[in-house]
Amino acid sequence: MRVALFVTCLVDLMRPSVGFAAVKLLEGLGAEVVVPPEQTCCGQPAYNSGDLATARDLARPLVDALAGFEHVVVPSGSCAGMLVKHYPELFEHEPEWHAKAITLARRTRELSAFLAEHGARLAASHAGRVAMHDSCSARRELNVLAEPRALLAQVDGLERVEIKEAETCCGFGGTFCVKYPDISARMVADKAAAVIASGADTLVSGDLGCLLNIAGRLKRMESSVRVYHLAELLAGMTEVPGIGEAGR
Amino acid sequence: MKPTAHAFERNARQALHDATLQQALARARGGFVDKRRAAIEALPEFAALRAAGRAIKDHTLANLDHYLLRFEAQVQAKGGQVHWAETPEEACAAVLDICRQAGAKLVAKGKSMVGEEIAINDALEAAGFEVVETDLGEYIIQIAHEPPSHIIAPAVHKTRQQITELFEGLHHQPGLTRPLQTVPQIVDEARQVLRDKFLAADVGITGANFLIAETGSAVIVTNEGNGDLSATLPRVHIVLASIEKVVPTLEDASVLLRLLARSATGQEITSYTTFFTGPRRADDPDGPEEFHVVLIDNGRSAMLAGPYREMLRCIRCGACLNHCPVYGAVGGHAYGWVYPGPMGAVLTPLMVGLEEGRPLPNASTLCGRCEAVCPMAIPLPKLLREHRRQEFARHLTPPRARWALAAWAFFARRPQLYRRAARLAAGLLGKLARGRGRFRSLPFASAWTAARDLPAPQGETFMDQWRRRNKS
Ligand code: SF4
Q1: Of the residues A25, B15, B103, B421, which has the maximum number of CB atoms within 10 A of its CB?
Q2: What is the pLDDT of residues B277-299, one digit of tens each?
Q3: Where is the signal peptide (chain A) (predicted)?
Q4: Which domains are delineated in chain B?
C-alpha cells in the first residue's frame, strides 16, 4: 500500500515531529509513505478570506501532486476537511478539475480516521490522564470523533478524560485569531480553563493549529499540562519537548 | 436603528470588558444549550422533523409568489387586508396610515424582529403615537432605550439587578414600590403596568412566526401571552411579517412550530401558540374590528434569486446565536444591527450593505456549530464565506489583509522558494526562542502574544529533514 502524506504547512514549519510520527504510524500499517515534494499549503487562508482565485491556484498543483495515489493522509482535520469538503466546491464550475477534486476527496483521510479504518495496532504506552481536543473541522466537517478515542484506548497506561464544553471552538480559526485577537483570546482562555478543569496532565488533538493556540494559552497561564499532537502520542514519540516547552 | 456593524471590533472590545454583560452572557449561554440538547435528545425523530421542515421551506420558497397570493386572497376572504411593502419606508407608511385612520393614540406592540428591522417604533413615535412594548424583554429594553441583543430574548444581556433599577426609576404607581428580588416579582410588576396599556390601546401590532396560505392565518408564539392580548384587545390588529414567513398549510406550520420551540428554548411547544384569522366575526365574543397584514420584502426578493437564498429558510429560533462562541463572548449589541450572531452576520450585510456590514462575516471562526444546530440546516459558514468572497471581489477587504494574503500566496505558489523561506523562518525562529520553546512576545505577532505565548518552531522543517532522511 502506497500512501501519500500531505504534511500541512504548519507541521512542516512548526512541528516536523508530527510528520515523522505520522510516517511511523503509517509504516506500522505496512504502508510505503511518499511525501510529494510539490506540496506547500492547501490554500485555506485564501479560501476563507474569499480569495477564491488564489485558493484555486494553490489547489491545482496539490490536486495534481496527490493524483497518483490511492490513499492520501493528512495529520490535520482542518486541512483534510479542505481537501475533502472544499476542493470540490472550489471547482464546482470547472468540470475537469471538479472531477479530479472529487477523486482526491474520496481518497483523502484525516490521519486517525485512516488508522482506525485500517485496523492499526499500536504499541505505545503513556502513563497519565489525557484529554482529546477535537478540532471543529474534524468534529463537524469530517465527523471524526470516535476514531481518535478508539486509538487512544490502545495506548497502555493511559486514562482518558473529556473536556467540558468540548464542542466549543478554541478560537484559533486560522486568520480569525489575527483578525479578532481579543475575541480569540477570550475563547482560548475559556478552552484552556476547561482543559485544566478536566484534570488532564496531557492534551492531544489531531490539529496543530488548535494545539498551538491552546498550548500558547496554557503556557501563558504557567500550566503544567503538556501538549502533543495525537500522532506523537500514538506513535510513542513523546520524548521530544511538548508544544511550547523548552528543550530538555 | 442606525447600524454600527462597521464598528464591530470596537463594539466587541467594549463588550469583552463589560463585566456585567459578561456575567449575563455566561448565565444565558449554558441554559439555552442544555435545554435545547435535552429537548432534542428526548425526540428521536428530530432529524426527520428537521428534514421535513427544510423541505417545506424549500418548496414554499420555490413557489413563493403562488403562496403569497393565495395567502392574500384568504386574508381578504376572511375580511382582512394585505398591504405590500417593498422597503422599510413603505412598510412604516402603511402602518402609520392604518393607525391614523383608526384615530389611534396608544399602540400596544408584541415582539417583532421585522418591526425592529423597519424601525417601526421610531416611525410611530415621530408621528405622534405612543408605543408600548408588551413582551417583557422588549419592554425592558424599550424603557432602557436600547435595541434588542438577541432575537428571542431581547434583554438577555441585562442582569436582574439592572432590570430592578430600571423599574424603580420608572414605575411610580402606588403599590409598585416594593423591592424586586425574584424574577416572578419582576414579571408581576411589569404585568401590572402593562395591563392598563393593553386596555387603553387602540391598535395592536404583532409580528408573525408563520403565515398560512391555506387559511390566511398569522401564527405567533409567545411565552407570556402578551401577543394574544396585543392582538385581541385593541380595535385594530396589524401583523408585520416578511414575505418568507408564509407556509402552505396548517400542517406545515405545525412541523415548523415543533422545530422552533425545541431549538429556541428547549420547549416542546411554546406556552402560547395563537392562530389569528381575520377580524372579529359577527358572533365572535372578542377580537379586533380590523385585521391588517403588512407584507415586507426589504431585500428578500433579491435574496431569493441569489446565492443567499437558503438564508430565507430561517425561522428565527436563535439556536445559532446561543451556540456561537463569538456571540457568546461579545453579545448581540456588538453586531451593531437588528440581527446578531451567525444569522445576523449573513443577514445584516444583505440589508444594510456590505460596506457597513463588512466585519460581521469575518467575525467567525467558521467552526460550523451554527450550521450543526440550525433546525433548518442553513449552511451558515458557506454563506459567510460567500460574503467574504464578495468582499474580496469588491476590494472591501482591508489592504493589510490583502497584502499579507498576496505575499503568502506568492511563496505558496512556488514550492522551491516556499521551501527556502520556510527553512529560513523555522531556523531563525527556532534559534530566537533559544531553547525556551516559546515566545512571550514577538513584534510581528503581537495580536497573538497579547494573550498567549507563541510556541516556537522545532527548528528544521519537515521537508528538509525528510529529504535528508531519504537521501541517506
Ligand atoms: S439561522 Fe437557523 S439556527 Fe439561526 S435563527 Fe435561523 S433557523 Fe435558527
Answers
A1: A25
A2: 999 999 998 899 999 999 999 99
A3: none
A4: 43-302 (3.40.50.10420), 406-470 (no CATH)
